[in-house]
Amino acid sequence: MLSKLQIIAYKDDELRSKVGSYAVQLNPESYEHRHHAEFTTDRGIDAAGAISQFKSRAPEVLSFAAVIDATGVVPGVSSIDDELGKIRKVAYSFNGSIHSPNYLRVAWGKLTFDCQLVDLNVSYLLFSPQGLPLRARLIFTFRQHQTPADLARGAGKQSADLTHQRVVREEAGLSLMCYDVYGDPGLYPQVGRANDLNDVMHVPEGRALNFPPVRGQ
Fold first, then answer.
1. 51 and 157 share a domain?
2. Which of residues 92, 116, 146 is at a domain's end?
3. pTM exceeding the 0.70 threshold for the entire prediction
4. What is the chain's Cα-based Rg?
5. For residue 29, how far is the Cα from the chain centroid?
6. Which has more pLDDT, 145 or 217?
7. In the prediction, which pLDDT does 26 show?
8. What span, in angstroms and rounded, lies between the C-alpha atoms of 50 and 136?
9. Which residue of 22, 24, 100, 196 has the fewest CB atoms within a 10 Å radius of its CB?
């Protein structure tokens, strides 16, 4: 039996409360799964080149094109406008209960991608004599959705229940160090207080800092 690509909608960011789904009429011929890492670049005085330091991994992006056909050649769709309405309801329309569009899971074969729709481009390709659309090509772009727990697991964070010590490296700000230890860059004020820092924005290179268990995890 042919497996259809599914877009499954949830109303919670943990993707537990399903509120709808959409199966494409025709599976895409291909899809693109993009990965991107971000780096800070420092070009020192009289340096021959730039020094790159890892900053973060950007959310992954999934994109593909799918065709919907209302000519009757392929069963399942009688109206392009009605089909687009179903897609928008599942993936694009504002959900007032969560104050955003639905959280989504794209599933097809071995592909499982938790995400939200960030772009939907519709090209109308064929029309009836009355000017009604009979075929359309849809280009979907989804951005990866991850919970804080997913981010921490993916980065291999150490337990926040233990005190860790780190030595400040050049250009490694306190917020970045907090992200490395706790998975939360916003905890730098608490770490600053724990180390009696008067200036949390300019910590001297080479200083050893303690990263104790903190609230906010």
1. no
2. 146
3. no
4. 24
5. 23
6. 145
7. 96
8. 47
9. 196
